[in-house]
Amino acid sequence: MGNFDDSIDTDVLVIGGGTAGVVAAIASARMGKRTILVEQNGFLGGTATAALVTPMMANHINRLPLNTGICEEINQRLERTGDGALASDGNSGWFNPEKLKFVLEDLVLEAGVECIYYSFVHEVLVDQGRVAGIVLHNKSGKLRINSRLTIDASGDADVAFKAGVPFESGNPFNEGKNQAMSMRFHMGQVDLPRVAAFIRSIGGYCGDYPFMHAASVWGHNLPLEPLLRKAVDDGILEMSDGDYFQFFSVPGRPGELAFNCPRITERVDGTNVFHLTDAAQRGRRIIARFERFLKAYIPGFEESYIVMTSQMVGVRESRRIVGSYTLSQNDVRQGAKFEDAIARSCYPIDVHSPNRGDEQKLDFGNLPEGQYHEIPYRCLVPMVMDSLLVAGRCISADFHAQSAIRIESNCRAFGEAAGTAAALCIDHGLEPRNLSGILLRKILYERGCNLL
Ligand SMILES: Cc1cc2nc3c(=O)[nH]c(=O)nc-3n(C[C@H](O)[C@H](O)[C@H](O)COP(=O)(O)OP(=O)(O)OC[C@H]3O[C@@H](n4cnc5c(N)ncnc54)[C@H](O)[C@@H]3O)c2cc1C
């Protein structure tokens, strides 16, 4: 186990200050538990800030959000400052990633959460079948944190993995290949009205700031496709650059567009540092090509420049723990309901295929209009290992179900459930597997979550 430069005791330890982890920490601290939140970056938000993933995909029915609670509280804070916006279709998840860092930090500090940044999980301390704490590695050396309850919100299930919890990763048909990654970027000084007018002039949908959106995928005959094809013929882009091309405008950032590309389809294991390094390098090379393409081919981009490229490579799917219940694609497609539901979702199955060309035969698995499925508490509880809960995109779900539930608003809801469950376990002296998911659901409902 090694020597430690320091040691701390806490009630709840949350690993990963990202989409789910921040909300888990807020929920646990608000229930009076000493809560420590550990994050490898020097800021909060994870994929939503460091990987520039904005906006949140819509998850509402008849304009009513399915994820309320702390998720909506975050959205409303952003909206009040002009850095978030509610679209006319009812999606309250349009936001400025840079300002999200500030809002999350305010909420975390107001709740009394203690943050430790710039720290990475070095070792998981397992004692008689339960996670007893974590050893962190950082500039100060090695820090040991003893915890009564640990929440793994690392996205990749790093804690569960190191503790020996079984996991799955990748697709079922194709040698465990993970979903494609993306390396996102922003362009600035874009003449948004001219871009919107141009896309409308070629028959496309675009919307207006702050709700602009356009996309192209080879073979879908979207209006931008001929332009991308010409750029390939002209030697500006490579064929694979046009596999998936998409941008959104960003509230609070007039003149900017956020790109959900380039897509990376080879060497896409988000837990392999060589794959991540390769993806970051390839991603930036493609972004340099996109910059040339945009300035030369799309009216409105002439004076634009690259504002930033994402710090984190965007990883859609990696380890998924084997939990007390594994959500299946049938559950998603059939709108399954559970007594111990902790979140609701109507987002479709959405696999960004690791295989080039597959997007032409996409099966989105949409639920009928007005229908949703639920996600049970048991998906957050590892099948083996006590004193540990998991929140975020790495909860227990099969490959296709995960592609539907991984959206940010759901990950926040998993975080709120995990933080609340951790506090309840401590109050009642229970292990997570023995906590009643029905009681948890009732308490989440009383705290504002849409779970009636
Ligand atoms: C390219 C891309 C596009 C997407 N598009 C959308 C979209 O348009 N809308 C939408 O709603 N969702 C989208 N998603 C999905 C969604 O953004 C993610 O599934 C979700 O944000 C994941 O949340 P999380 O909390 O599980 O992980 P994260 O938000 O990534 O949080 C994990 C945190 O843990 C930290 N961490 C990891 N390992 C360690 C460690 N060992 N020690 C310390 N800290 C650690 C990380 O730095 C990070 O802050 C997209 C995802 C990607 C990658």
From TrEMBL:
Gene3D superfamilies, sorted: FAD/NAD(P)-binding domain (3.50.50.60)
Family annotation (InterPro entries): FAD/NAD-bd_sf, HdrA-like
Ranges that cross the membrane: 12-29, 41-58
Keyword Transmembrane helix on entry: yes
UniProtKB keywords: 4Fe-4S, Iron, Iron-sulfur, Membrane, Metal-binding, Oxidoreductase, Transmembrane, Transmembrane helix
Single GO term (MF): oxidoreductase activity
Cross-referenced Pfam families: FAD_oxidored
Domain of life: Bacteria
Stored PANTHER family: COB--COM HETERODISULFIDE REDUCTASE IRON-SULFUR SUBUNIT A, FERREDOXIN:COB-COM HETERODISULFIDE REDUCTASE SUBUNIT A
Protein name: FAD dependent oxidoreductase
